[in-house]
Each structure stands twice: as structure tokens, then as C-alpha cells.
Amino acid sequence: MNPVPITLSPAGPAGPVRSARRARRRRYLLCPPEHFAVTYAINPWMDPDRPVDRAAALRQWRELAAVLRGLGHRVDLLGPEPGLPDMVFTANGATVVAGRVLVARFRHPQRAGESAAHRRWFAAARFGRVSTAAEVNEGEGDLLVAGRRILAASGFRTTPAAHREAEQVLGLPVVSLELTDPRYYHLDTALAVLDDSRVMYHPEAFAPPTRRLLRRLYPDAILADPADAAAFGLNAISDGRHVVLPAAARGLAEQVRAAGFVPVPVALPELLKAGGGPKCCVLELRSDERGGRVDGGAPRVA
Predict the structure, then answer these.
(1) Where are the transmembrane segments (predicted)?
(2) Which listed residue, 23, 239, 244, 245, has the most CB atoms within 10 A of its CB?
(3) Is 186 a catalytic residue?
(4) Range of the domain at 271
(5) How far apart are alpha carbons 155 and 44 in whole angstroms?
(6) 151 assigned to some structural domain
(7) Catalytic residue chosen out of the listed positions 118, 163, 280, 281
(8) Which is it for strands 94-97 and 74-77: parallel, antiparallel or unpaired?
(9) Reported pTM
(10) Residue 29: closest CA among 111, 108, 120
(11) pLDDT one-digit tens code per residue, 60-101
(12) Which string of DSSP letters, residue by residue, matches 207-234?
């Protein structure tokens, strides 16, 4: 996959952004929140007594999908299934590296059925190398591809044993990180990969040894303050140039801009009621860049 310049230049508080960074076109899997609800609580953000506006959630999700298409990316659709209200968070369903797929095994029984839905999609889309995790692993929620390594978290959902399994199945070395703040129960709520060598993260979400490790690996990382982290600002999607992040994380957007990236704000307040943001809604389908073909049998989002 070759770098492709994308002409969209979103405006922020300081006007249109000019950036020398180059985007790579991506292929993403999304699932419309047609059955979205908060009927149980498996993270601190979820409150079943708090009303959810499903129509608003669907509207906000469609805007996110339109932004991704507008940036030149391919968006494929996973069909929603009744009884699985969190299916909109496709990032948790699998991790895909060079055409190899590791389907998640969820910690909580309320989400267990999502694994089978993802397996069916990858079979229909003719992905040839699909494995289902033996260890508890919640996909790109806790396994973030960063260049030629995978940053993998444990502490709340994914187990340390799953890190070794991911390394074996996906063929990249895994760096283990420990989350300690239950509000940031997945790695993608506390850290975002901006490009192959740069990340942004919230130090207070991690154990002290992990903070030291991240400082050593990424000395020029962008650090999110508590307010932007609580706005789910780190639950972001980057194509190497554009960074799609929650509109409420204004300070983080300015840091992203100052680092030469193009912030693209979106608003998903209904999905935040379930502890989800832009990245939670997007699973990246990384093709085999060594020449292997990955066909797409599923329809694109209309």
C-alpha cells in the first residue's frame, strides 16, 4: 500500500491546517449502531439508567463513516445483530496484520457473541488466515499496531497470556503495557498510534513501569492531560496525517496540530455513554503488503 496524498484539510479553531505529512489510504470495518443500547455496565462509563438516543447514535456514527470516506478511506460494513448492543465497537472484535486475523475472545459474556459475528464476516470477505483467540483478548481495543510492533495492554480486559498468542499469530513483536485506571479499560482509550514511530497517551492511565517504558520508546510522544483523556480524546484514528478525534478534546487537537498532523474533530456523545469513541467504532483491515491478496466480500457503507 503506497502513501497517497489526501486533499481534505479540515479546519479547526485556527482555520485550515497545512501539513507536510502524508496519509495512507486505509480499509476499515464499521458496524451501524442499529441495536445500540446500554443495558448492562461493564465499564465505569456505562449506566443502564441513563437514557440513550439510538437515532442520535446512528446519526453520529454516519457522520464518522462519512468523514472516513471523505478522507479517501474504504469503509466496509459488518451487519448488526439483535442482542449485541456493543457491536458498533468493531475495534474490539479482532486484530488484522498483513492479512492475518486474530478474532477476539471477550472477557464479559454480554459481548461473547460478537466473536462469532466477526468470524462470519471475515469468512464471507474471504480472508484466508483467520484464527480465534484461545486467550482473552479484545482486539484492537488492547492490541495497537505501531509500525513493526504491537503495543498490547493488560489490566482490565486482555490477559498477559494473550500478548504471547498475538505475537505468534500476527507475526509482530509485542510490547506489554499495564493499565491501572478503570476509566481507561482498553488501551485505545489511553493511547493512540499517530504513525509508525509516534504516539499520544495519558500517562496516568498506566502503571509506573509502563510509563517509564513509554517514555523510553516514544520520547517525543504527545501527552494528554486529564480533561482531554476524560473526553476520550485518545480514542483516535490516524492515517499518518489526519487524526480523527472527539471534538471535545480541544487541547489535544491543538497539540496534534502543533506536531504537524491534521486534527479532524467528530462528536459521538451517545456512543460515549457506553464508553466508546471514534477508534472503538473502527477496525483496521490491514492487507498483506508482501503481495498477498485480501478480497472484500462485504458491502461498503452507503
Answers:
(1) none
(2) 245
(3) yes
(4) 25-38+48-284
(5) 15
(6) yes
(7) 280
(8) unpaired
(9) 0.90
(10) 120
(11) 999 999 999 999 999 999 999 999 999 999 999 999 999 999
(12) -HHHHHHHHHH-TT-EE--HHHHHTTTT
